[in-house]
Amino acid sequence: MKAAALTGMRKIEVREVPEPRIKNDSDVLLHVRAVGLCGSDIQYYSTGRIGKDVVQYPFIVGHECVAEVEDVGSKVKRVEPGDRVAIDPALTCGECDQCLGGRPNTCRNLRFMGCPGQMEGCLTEFVVMPESNCFPVEKNMNIERSILAEPLSIGIYSIRSLGTFQAATAAILGSGPIGLSVALAARDIGIPAIYMTDKIDARLEAARKAGAIWTGNPDRSDVAKEIEALEPGGLDAVFECCGDQDACDQAVELLRPGGRLLIIGIPESDRISFDAHRLRRKEINIHNVRRQKGCIPAAIDMIKKLNADVDFMVTHIFNLEETQEAFELAEHYRDGVIKAIVKP
What we know:
By secondary structure, the protein is an alpha/beta fold. It folds into 2 domains: 2-151 and 293-343, Quinone Oxidoreductase, Chain A, domain 1 (Alpha-Beta Complex), CATH 3.90.180; 162-288, Rossmann fold (3-Layer(aba) Sandwich). The relative contact order is 0.16. It contains 11 helices and 19 strands. The strands form 5 sheets. Strands 3, 6, 7, 10, 11, 18 and 19 form a 7-stranded mixed beta sheet that branches.
């Protein structure tokens, strides 16, 4: 079968690799129909690493996956050949203290699809995943919408991470696919005032479609000052979705005393910093968001409910032989790209 593999820094080759086989009675053999390119995939492509996760070439990335069931193990009951499914790319052990404590997203033995040192990704024709990671989607839901289940699940989990904290005002710093997913989830629970920033005008336009009442470009204006003029008491919550030091500084400035900062973006550098005195005086609560926790079904339901209202997020479609082109487009934010997908 064919797969698109990283073979060096900013190099992708389509090559023949062995087709996976069902080994366990709970396995599902999946024919991959579409793969969404995530910011983490682009980071592996352009820098070869995220933190301590370093690519050993050749390596197949990709974890946002919609597939059709090709075959199933003997004990699989929830799906059958011909079903279309969205994939949860995280394989957890179910036995460690984190899993048993209701935190599978921080499983001590977690293996994540397309993560170096854990398991290869889905930019290929076939993959095998456990039944528990396969979530049926209706066949009349088009593939382009279905691919949004994984990023939307992160947006939903980010909003759920507020817990009982009441947020009537929020800023989302970074209007890429994850920031837009947070916005859609925030709008869905009724947060009335959503402010969004980005350095790319096409993404600010998308932010308004996602529900932002105000958008701003930090390269052209003092966004913190402009939002403060509209919300002089400060914002209840800020979602940092771009992994940028300047955005972290803006977040602290924007928050009201007692506000919540949720860090979702993955920085390219190993460290970010904060003004400790401003954090202390405002008693800012910082919460890191680690992927998602059981939110794929909720994301599928949200896509069904919003229907065409999520279509703006998928902007470019490529075939497997064009994967290098897809990565180059996404890395350099060309042609107004928001979500590029590859269809093997």
